[in-house]
Amino acid sequence: MSAVAIETTPPLWRRLIGFNLLTAVVLGVGGWYLGWFIGHQVAGASIDYFGDIDQNDVAIFCGYIIGLLGFLIGLGFGVYPWSRMRGYPPSLREKETEGAGRYFGLCTDHKVVGIQYLWGIGLFFFVGGLNAMFIRMELLSPTSHIFPPGQYLTLVGMHGTMMMGMFTSGILGPFANYLVPLMIGARRMAFPRIEALTFWLLMSAGAILTTTIFFGGFPTGWTGYEPLNDQANAGMDAYIVFFALVGISMCLLGLNMIATIVTMRAPGLTWSRLPIFCWGVLSTAILMVLAAPVLVAVLGMAMLDRTAQTTFFLPTGGGSPYLYENLFWIFGHPEVYILALPGFAIVLELLPVFARKPLWGYRLSVAGLLGVTLLSWLVWQHHIFVSGINSDLRPFYMLSTELISIPTGFTFLCGLMTLWRGNLRFPVPMLFCLAWFFNFLIGGLSGVFLSDVPSDVTTHGSFFSMAHFHYTIMGGLVFTFFAAIYYWVPKMTGYMLNERLGKVHFWLMFISFNSTFGPLFAIGFLGQPRRAVTYAHTLQFLNDWVSISAFVLGFSLLLFLVNFVWSLVFAKVPAPANPWGSRSLEWQLPSPVPVHNFDRIPHITSDPYDYGEARGPVAVPAPTGVGGMS
To answer: Does the pTM of the predicted model rise above 0.70?
Structure first.
């Protein structure tokens, strides 16, 4: 007697009841109200202190924390530990799910997580960009006329906080998660469930930050300085929980990357053969693991000051707001290189492909990445030159800040020498890489004015420092982020992005970016402070120029979105197996990559940059054809 198993699709109501995004949202909202109720039952000084203005920080924090736990449980993150406690063997069934539904829930396939990161971070990038458009609308006039000063400060704070928080994983989230196992010949990440957890923690953080508008926003900008932090209304609680979750996500993501690269490399993939992108990921991951706990700790102390009446940062109780500044920037300046190092690595990874020659100075490039990683810990006090720092310490931090330009210069040197006498091609990814040289050079040169005490006294807190920061981060990270999208999205999706639209996007973005942030150097020198809603009437022309340029910059990003959706949803031009003629391992696999990555773990016998060396040829596509390429 035999039985035949017949697979049937479960009804809709069965699919909706289970561990999925809908359940997670329901449990998250329910957890919020449960936490809010519990918080109101807690007897504490903070309730009495804020009772006259109906502000209960204990209830708000309880709501966020219990709501987050409910959200994660609804996604299914409690199933594995519960099953293990009951004696069931470990499994990765979440990895083997198929269909579009896997992108909206817990999935342990590193490629799915990478694509989840790409869409999720992209969503919050456009939300942060929309805030920037509101800021520039307000600054079209030297007097406040659209937003009251308090709302304007919240817009500025939400823009900076969302961009800095979400883009800490802007490269490692989508691209390192997707590509590192492929580049090192592994079938998965070292800790697949932790990998999935980092994504959903980051998305939860972004959603929590947006709720600050329901509690009055926060007045501190992205740094959350004390004593404003302690004095702010309930919207500050969303800031604290947001950055704390970002810190936890960063730490776990960095730990996973280090474990994967160190322990799961394919046979023959020695350290001297490791792709330079993986070196950049490893350097960034080290900073994440060491810097993020400092952020979580300082925000934990700020939370206790707001709820339990501790006085870590309150002078009246023996604390000091200066302690907050130091602890924040011990995290904050390594974070700048958490944003910058992946951009370095992307440029060095892509240049050999489009120059058709080996990466010049591979070991020097690695030394540059590791040198920046080391020196980034020794420069944080240049952010507080004007905050009462002991004058005897200023020369050391001036020196260390300027010394970090040496390993950064290694990256420039290796990139330029890779271009020298190369057989250059100029598709969209290459254009964004070349723009990085121009933008980051301006960012680095302008940083000299902020690293020297005499000039920093003049430019600190002005639009000059804001222009420097955007040239360094947006001109560096965001441009390389788009280079990575145009280069690797064909691998991730199996479809080419439209080349002509991509080039229009690049030139519009490059020109409008420089037209936006270049004049801000002059505005800063002329005395306009950042985060101020009003300014001198004599600066209106420059501000109007910057605002109009910013609107064009925003339009260029909308053009990219049109290209992205059109190419992947409607046009769907299939990507060749290796459209760029790359020799790196990920491009030797089908596009998109199968679930198991490799049928057999490869044995590595050469480095990925041996262009022009005696090895089997790799086909280079013609300059016209697929995806509207020209």
So the answer is: yes
